[in-house]
Amino acid sequence: MFSTAAHLRSLSRVAVAAAVAGLTSTTTTPRSYGTTCTPYHLHPIKQATPGFSHFSVASMRSGKHHTASMPTESSPELHKYGQYLLSCLPKFIQQISVYKDELTLYVAPNAVLPVMTFLRDHTNAQFKQVQDVCGVDYPTKDHRFEVVYHLLSLRFNSRIRVKTYAAENTAVPSITPMFPGANWHEREAYDMYGIFFTGHPDLRRILTDYGFEGHPLRKDFPLTGYVEPLEMAQSFRNFDYSSAWEQVYVLLSFCSQLAVVGPN
Questions:
Q1: What is the predicted pLDDT for the residue at 185?
Q2: Among 34, 56, 60, 74, which one has the highest count of C-beta atoms within 10 angstroms of its own C-beta?
Q3: Distances in Å between the alpha carbon of 85 and those of 103, 104, 139, 141, 201?
Q4: Which residues belong to any copy of the NADH:ubiquinone oxidoreductase 30kDa subunit domain (predicted)?
Q5: Of 95, 83, 91, which Cα lies nearest the Cα of 50?
Q6: pLDDT-flagged residues of the chain (< 70)
Q7: How far apart are alpha carbons 115 and 244 in whole angstroms?
Q8: What is the CATH number of domain 16-220?
């Protein structure tokens, strides 16, 4: 039995090594992964946000990736994987970038759900955990807010970053129905920045008090904050201190006193 288990572990290591070699091979094409590369045919991206230039299939085939950073000695696999994701989702991924061994995908708000679904369910992705959802404020931009998602793949021990954008009067689809762990992260982004997430089951403030005005992490929020008058007055309330165990406490107290004093 021990030899059989060792043989199975050896075969497992060989399979994993072959899979990694296939992902990092320069001759591997997207078709060789055994799955359809464009499973989503929703609404294509029509307009990119300022600063997010759109990748085209023609430019990808010609090798002219002007918006992606140049590969380094430690990140060629990330560039290959990013180009693979781009070939799978050309209608939804606007831009890819690799900086210090970190892969980032730039998508439009209407592409958040299909991209997240692909990254969660695809065999070569398996990003099933959301580590963080945060916001960034750029007041001078038309779309002043940047929503950043950090995903983790336990199967491949890798991380990926997805970025989208929003304005003060626009919303971003909520990923809470897909990733329940993003619930409080999106509530925090709403509380601190005022970013709206459509489809969130309970979008309300989570850090500030009830009736708080403003969003503290916006660049235009005053550093001194807003001073609110403190109201100490409270209307009369009739507190009910009765307890179902009160008679039991009295009986136990009487018994303890009786035991100390004695029957006399």
A1: 98
A2: 60
A3: 11, 11, 31, 28, 30
A4: 105-226
A5: 95
A6: 1-74, 228, 230-250, 260-264
A7: 56
A8: 3.30.460.80
Predicted confidence at residue 100, as pLDDT, reads 85
Given its phi and psi angles, is residue 162 left (phi above 0), alpha (psi -120 to 50 degrees) or beta?
Answer: beta
Identify the burial level of 40 via C-beta atoms within 10 angstroms of its C-beta, where 0-12 means exposed, 13-18 middle and 19 or more buried.
middle
CA-CA distance, 94 to 50, in Å (whole number)? Answer: 11
| 81 contacts 31 by C-beta, under 8 angstroms | no
Residue 135 pairs with which residues in a beta bridge?
A: 147
- d(CA 199, CA 151) in angstroms, rounded, equals 20
What pLDDT is recorded for position 246? 64
Delimit the domains of the chain by residue range. Answer: 16-220
N-to-C CA span, the chain: 78
* Contacting residues for 189 by C-beta, under 8 A, at least 6 apart: 133, 134, 135, 147, 195, 197
DSSP string, 71-124: P-TT-HHHHHHHHHHHHH-TTTEEEEEESSS-EEEEE-GGGHHHHHHHHHHSTT
Contacts of 133 (CB under 8 A, 6+ apart): 147, 148, 149, 150, 175, 182, 185, 186, 188, 189
pTM here is: 0.62
Single-letter residue type at 212: F
Q: Which two tokens stand for residue 52?
A: 């997010």
Q: How far apart are CA 132 and CA 130, in angstroms?
A: 6
